[in-house]
Each structure stands twice: as structure tokens, then as C-alpha cells.
Amino acid sequence: MIRLEQVSKIYKTSARPALDDVTVDMDRGEFVFLIGPSGSGKSTFLRLLLREEVPSKGKLYVNNFDITRMARRRVPRLRQSIGCVFQDFRLLVNKTVAENVAFALEVIGKPPHTIKKVVPEVLELVGLDGKAGRMPHELSGGEQQRVAIARAFVNRPLVLLADEPTGNLDPDTSQDIMLLLERINRTGTTVLMATHDHSIVDSMRRRVVELAFGRVIRDDARGVYGVGR
Ligand SMILES: Nc1ncnc2c1ncn2[C@@H]1O[C@H](COP(=O)(O)OP(=O)(O)OP(=O)(O)O)[C@@H](O)[C@H]1O
């Protein structure tokens, strides 16, 4: 599903590599935490998968796309196969909950009758039925993140990337969001989540890939956050 072979990323303005000779494989249906201190390369890792950056060295595959050699015109197809969720939700503030989710389908050309059917289904899945007509500012942070997850998942992506999805949420709400991500993972979607949240990583006991200075220093099948520290 996701494969990095000896990938390095060196930004022009930076003295040391942001990623340094990283080799990792993630299978279909895995749930993986990507952890490491600030500046260790987590966001760079995610940006490479979306082809927002290109690697300086190595090979990179996502959902059978060879990202290293990918022509620019094929990038939208790659991004359609990946759902993304961020710490700051990134909803369209002037659209309702349902319109935010529908928009993700409109931009990829889904017909209106499909959109009409699928949007309520996914809102129910994330626990937001009854709130379809609300504006984002009328929702709590946890609810806004649910909308973002619905939007990311509505197209049934093979991979869901989550960059600090609980970073702006209190612990209870964070737990709810994690239950939702687990539920999405159980449908077969690979979930890769970058996080600083010790308690979530420790309570879920999933695969943990730890970065330090751009290198993978740990890859545990059922890991915790702070081993050896
Ligand atoms: N666009 C860029 N240009 C130059 N250097 C960059 C760029 N983006 C990131 N870096 C550098 O690459 C390294 C890794 O950064 P990255 O943002 O991937 O880390 P991170 O683990 O996501 O950090 P955080 O947890 O704070 O988001 C850092 O040294 C950072 O300064």
C-alpha cells in the first residue's frame, strides 16, 4: 500500500536531510502511528506520499502509484486515492456540513444522485446525522473533525493520512475521534497518523514508526510512545 525504499529528502535551504535513507512498508488495512519530536520529518513523510514534495533520493510507492516517476498530470489521481485529515480541520467555512462533504465528490465529477445518496450515509457513519445543515462555526472542535473525516473518507480512499488529528481536541473528544479512525481502519483503509499524543499511542497499541532526525529509529508492531525514555 505504502512503500518507501531508501528515501531521502533534502530541502534546498536546509543543511541536514529532513528524511534520511528511510525504508518502510505499510500493508493494506494497517493502522500506523508516525511519531517523533518536532522537526523529525513526520510532515515531510506525509507530504512525500501526497506528492506535495518529491524525494531527493530513493523510491516511493502509494496505492500502486510509483510516485518517484509520476507525471504531474497523474497527481490528481493519486490524491483521489488518499484521504487527508489535519489538526486544524480545514473545512470550507461558508458551506454546511453536508456541502463540505459533497464538495469532495463534486470535484471528482461524481453525479448528483450519487452525492445525494452517499453524503447522508457517511455523515451517519461519523455520528453527524442530524447536523447536515449546520455551518462549521456552529460545531464543536470534535464535530468539525468528524466532518473532516467524513470528507476524507467519503470517496473510500485506500489510505487515510492524519496529521495530528487530535492536536486541537481535549482527551475525551480525542478518544472519540480515535474510535472513528479505528472504525474506518476496520473497513480496510490503511490509516497513517502522525501524532505527539502519548496517551493515544499507548492506549491503542498499534504499529509505531518513530523518526528522529529524519531516520527511522524504531518500528514496533504493537508499540507505545516512549519506550526507553
Ligand atoms: N519547506 C521546507 N524547506 C526547508 N526545510 C524544511 C521545509 N519543511 C521542513 N523543513 C525542515 O525539515 C525538517 C523536518 O521537518 P518536518 O516538518 O517534516 O518535521 P515534523 O516532524 O513534521 O515536525 P512537527 O512535529 O513540528 O510538525 C526540519 O528540520 C524542518 O526545518
UniProtKB/TrEMBL annotation:
InterPro entries: AAA+_ATPase (IPR003593), ABC_transporter-like_ATP-bd (IPR003439), ABC_transporter-like_CS (IPR017871), ABC_transpr_LolD-like (IPR015854), Cell_div_FtsE (IPR005286), P-loop_NTPase (IPR027417)
One GO location term (cellular component): plasma membrane
Bilayer disposition of the protein: Peripheral membrane protein
Main location: membrane
Cell cycle listed as a keyword: yes
Domain ABC transporter positions: 2-227
Keywords: ATP-binding, Cell cycle, Cell division, Cell membrane, Membrane, Nucleotide-binding
A Pfam family matched in the record: ABC_tran
GO molecular function: ATP binding; ATP hydrolysis activity; transmembrane transporter activity
Organism superkingdom: Bacteria
GO terms (BP aspect): cell division
Subcellular location: Cell membrane
Family in the record: Belongs to the ABC transporter superfamily.
Quaternary organization: Homodimer. Forms a membrane-associated complex with FtsX.
Function: Part of the ABC transporter FtsEX involved in cellular division. Has ATPase activity.
UniProt-recorded name of the protein: Cell division ATP-binding protein FtsE
Organism: Actinocrispum wychmicini
Lineage: Bacteria, Bacillati, Actinomycetota, Actinomycetes, Pseudonocardiales
